[in-house]
Specification:
The chain has 14 helices and eight strands. A six-stranded parallel beta sheet has the order 3-4-5-6-7-8. The structure holds zinc ion (ZN). The site of zinc ion has 3 residues, from strand 1.
């Protein structure tokens, strides 16, 4: 069945599995003018990434929200991230309003190494942000920048998780690399890091990092899809190795900026679940719903 899974089938698939819906920790919503620039970037993907990247859900905002609802995504984290200083506060304010007005969206935050980071991030956390996001390559900053020390510290203190895109894929940055981010985790051992894209392409390092840092998890975003397998294939023994960290894998999709249908990611995770007896449907239920719901602090159902 999962071989044939299409977007239209996902809701029924979830019902059959006995989960109340997908909790997706890695979705993007942005102010219209920023989103247009991001889509423009993907239009030039051949130049930036050396491969085409046709955005599958290039739709008006309300239609994108409706697609998620129809898929059975009951809760999602709309993530924003800046590419320069002076932008994170504004983006966070925008996404806070978006989340308040949008069913299923949890409030999120972003930040950047800049003098007022603790001020705006602290206020947002105080106001109930459920999760934050940073993108080391797009931001072009060093996650070890001393200006960020109070930000990592206050997130660790508040127990607010942070999605960190710090791997070398799909494009290297001056400060990407799980080894670099591991230094942040050593300095802030209680930080609840969500290693975006399971560290793609350094999947081994990501699993190693989970072992060393029990508060951290990996997200599934784009991992194992035919699109990323073409340039960042998973280790052959990926599924068996997940058995040791089964409750620390959370569902993420990168909707809407993916070059394939959303159902692909669900199918891929179902494939991992089926590939090892220690995983199976309990693992699939955990990844799609229970583990991300726990991460976001959602009430038990
Ligand atoms: Zn993303």
């Amino acid at each position: 069945m999962t071989d044939l899974l299409r977007d239209d089938d996902v809701a029924a698939f979830l019902a059959g599995l006995g989960v109340p819906g997908i909790v997706d920790v890695h979705v993007h919503f942005l102010p219209e003018n920023v989103l247009r620039k991001v889509w423009g970037y993907f239009d030039q993907a051949q130049e930036h990434y050396g491969m085409p990247w046709p955005v599958h859900y290039r739709l008006p905002e309300a239609d994108r929200v409706a697609v998620l609802e129809k898929l059975g995504v009951t809760t999602f984290a709309p993530l924003v991230y800046p590419h320069r200083p002076g932008m994170a506060r504004w983006l966070t304010e925008w996404v806070t309003e978006f989340a308040a007005a949008t069913l299923g969206a949890v409030p999120t935050a972003t930040f950047f190494p800049e003098p007022d980071v603790a001020d705006y991030l602290g206020a947002t956390v105080e106001d109930g942000a459920r999760i934050a996001k940073v993108h080391v390559q797009v931001g072009g900053f060093d996650p070890r920048d001393p200006l960020l020390t109070p930000a990592w510290g206050l997130l660790a203190e508040a127990g607010v998780p942070v999605v960190v895109h710090c791997g070398h894929g799909p494009r290297r940055g001056a400060h990407t690399g799980l080894d670099v981010f591991a230094e942040v985790l050593r300095a802030h051992p209680r930080l609840r890091a969500v290693i975006a894209h399971a560290g793609l392409p350094d999947f081994d390092s990501a699993l190693g990092l989970l072992v060393a840092h029990p508060s951290s998890v990996i997200d599934t975003t784009m991992v194992g899809t035919p699109f990323t397998e073409a340039f960042a294939p998973l280790p052959r023994d990926w599924a068996p190795r997940l058995a040791d960290v089964a409750d620390r894998v959370v569902f993420g999709s990168d909707f809407p900026n993916i070059p394939y249908a959303y159902a692909e990611q669900v199918r891929v995770v179902a494939g991992w679940a089926a590939a090892d007896d220690r995983l199976g449907e309990p693992f699939l239920r955990s990844v799609l719903h229970d583990a991300p719901a726990r991460l976001l602090g959602l009430p038990a159902w």
